[in-house]
Design a protein that fits this description.
By secondary structure, the chain is an alpha/beta fold. It is about 50% helix and about 5% strand. The protein contains 25 helices and 9 strands. It has a 7-stranded mixed β-sheet. The longest helix has about 35 residues, at about 175-205. The radius of gyration is 34 Å and the shape is elongated. Belongs to the glycosyltransferase 8 family. Pfam families: GAUT_1, Glyco_transf_8. It comes from Panicum virgatum.
């Protein structure tokens, strides 16, 4: 990845951080702020100069009316108060409305504390007095007048008695603040526990194989073994088809997956939106279990003349533990414990114990030049994407000597290197910039000639071997990808690869302009937990008229 000018990494604004806080945290902080303001106003307004008499104050105010610089700015102050819709009644230090409002704010805080202390009777008395004070203010506002002394005197006196009683019950500001802090902490702990449960259940749902997909695989397997015509379509390939598989003038795409329906959507959407589908070649790799049903599906379907090659990972005998560090590590007892049971008392987070991390299909992306030795350029696609535009232009993009073309994801700080890698480790700290821009797998243009020249697979092996103890990064294929392709990535226009449809909200305009939509995240479109507002983009390329689809998904 070429070094780029350091991008602005300003911290999120106060408004954004405030909106990201849970509602109960914002409520508690607002109550604390209101309480502090009331106490401050009480101190300021309730402490007159003991040496000044009322007559003296009145006289001095009259003499200073023409000399005070603050009063000379009356027109400016009037402009502010008008803009803020503040009345003279509320601005007056002797206003009954102001006294009532201050008492109401303080009383509401004491109501919360009284309920926490299980003093429900006192809380009810305070609430009733608050309603009485509010009714006086509402009456005055409705009639466009001020609160009169005879109306407010009794309400202010009764409220003062209750507030004094609250202080006698030790509901003072310090205790109130401490209790509110404790309440906030308790709510935060409950929120954290609920978030962990949500993550756990979401992960479990994402890992489950839907009944419809299981049914489709079984029925396709039966169809494959009882229908010799389907088998001949793949065994008796014409010389033209065989030549297409290695013709570098065509558009070569590779997908590694065990999800038949998802792969069919990738192929169908690519072919449907292509200007020249007859020039498209798809290289698919699956596992032993899905090899027969995958071949049956694509033997039964014709995607506008697209050439499809299907292989199984078990046939790549050179992918063994002596060559592939990941396979060697998976044979290690400590690694198996890390994946399945976690290490230490706290264990490994459930999101890192996803079976996909154990699948060789997830790591095949680092061996593409060896799987396809005669190809020069390919586009790698994940199986959870939908193509909306013609992708032929990707094969003409100049990568400027780099190995990969990818869309960068550092618009937010959490997609930089320091979020994926352990930068406290000396190896990582010495070789990589923590603020380097991350990028995404899912739609990647690969120059296999440059890959071989720069030995990217060897670099990948080097870092995998250094991470045998999981101290450089936890799990997944992206962190080692960031290391292996460091300085070898050409940034593509973001419209080529739109991410986030599987876990967040994406701008509709961005989706409309996107060439490839990526459902990265747990909420895949073929799962019940998928985001409904984005499922239609995926459903458009599922052939629900197919008999097997109807048998497995329409019941």
């Amino acid at each position: 990845m070429r070094r780029r000018p350091f991008l602005d990494q300003r911290r999120p604004s106060f408004k954004r951080r405030w909106q990201q806080r849970p509602w109960w945290v914002r409520l508690a902080l607002s109550l604390l702020f209101a309480l502090a303001c009331v106490l401050l106003l009480t101190v300021i307004l309730g402490s007159p100069d003991p040496g000044a008499s009322p007559s003296t104050s009145t006289a001095s105010s009259g003499t200073e009316a023409t000399s005070s610089p603050l009063l000379r700015q009356r027109s400016y102050l009037e402009g502010i108060t008008d803009a803020l819709n503040m009345t003279d009644e509320m601005l007056s230090a002797r206003s009954f409305s102001r006294q009532l409002m201050d008492q109401i704010y303080l009383a509401k805080s004491y109501v919360v504390v009284a309920k926490e202390a299980n003093n429900l009777q006192f809380a009810a008395e305070l609430s009733a007095q608050v309603r009485q004070a509010q009714s006086i203010l509402v009456h005055a506002a409705a009639h466009g007048g001020t609160v009169l002394e005879q109306e407010a005197e009794k309400a202010i006196r009764d409220m003062s008695v209750l507030l004094f009683q609250a202080q006698q019950l030790r509901y003072d500001s310090g205790i109130t603040i401490m209790k509110l802090k404790g309440q906030i902490q308790s709510l935060e702990e409950k929120s954290k526990a609920e978030a962990e449960k949500s993550t756990k259940y979401g992960q479990i749902a994402a890992e489950e194989l839907p009944k419809g997909l299981y049914c489709l695989g079984v029925r396709l397997t039966m169809e494959w073994f009882k229908n010799s015509e389907l088998q001949r379509k793949f065994s008796d390939r014409s010389p033209v088809v065989q030549n297409n598989l290695r013709d570098n003038s065509l558009y070569h795409f590779c997908v590694f997956s065990d999800n038949i329906l998802a792969v069919s959507v990738v192929v169908n959407s690519t072919a449907t939106n292509s200007k020249h589908p007859e020039k498209i070649v798809f290289h698919l790799v699956t596992d032993e279990l899905n090899y027969a049903p995958m071949r049956a599906w694509f033997a039964m379907s014709d995607y506008r003349g697209v050439t499809v090659e299907i292989q199984k990972v078990e046939d790549f005998t050179w992918l063994n533990a002596s060559y592939v560090p990941v396979l060697k590590q998976l044979q290690n007892t400590a690694t198996q414990k890390f994946y399945f049971s976690g290490s230490g008392n706290r264990g490994t987070p459930i999101k890192f114990r996803n079976p996909k991390y154990l699948s060789m299909l997830n790591h095949l992306r680092f061996y593409i030049p060896e799987i396809y030795p005669e190809l020069q350029k390919v586009v790698f696609l994940d199986d959870d994407i939908v193509v909306q535009k013609d992708l032929s232009e990707l094969f003409t993009i100049n990568l400027n000597g780099n190995v990969m073309g990818a869309v960068e994801t550092c618009m937010e700080t959490f997609h930089r290197f320091h979020k994926y890698l352990n930068h406290s480790h000396p190896l990582i700290r010495a070789h990589f910039d923590p603020d380097a821009c991350g990028w995404a797998f899912g739609m990647n243009v690969l120059d296999l000639v440059e890959w071989r020249n720069k030995n990217v697979t060897g670099i990948y092996h080097y870092w995998q071997e250094r991470n045998a103890d999981h101290t450089l990064w936890k799990l997944g294929s992206l962190p080692p990808g960031l290391l292996a392709f460091y300085g070898l990535v050409e940034a593509l226009d973001p419209k080529w690869h739109v991410l986030g449809l599987g876990y967040t909200t994406v701008d509709p305009a961005t989706i409309k302009e996107g060439a490839v939509l990526h459902y990265n995240g747990n909420m895949k479109p073929w799962l019940k937990i998928g985001m409904e507002k984005y499922k239609s983009f995926w459903d458009n390329y599922v052939d629900y008229s197919h008999p097997l689809i109807q048998q497995c998904f329409m019941r």
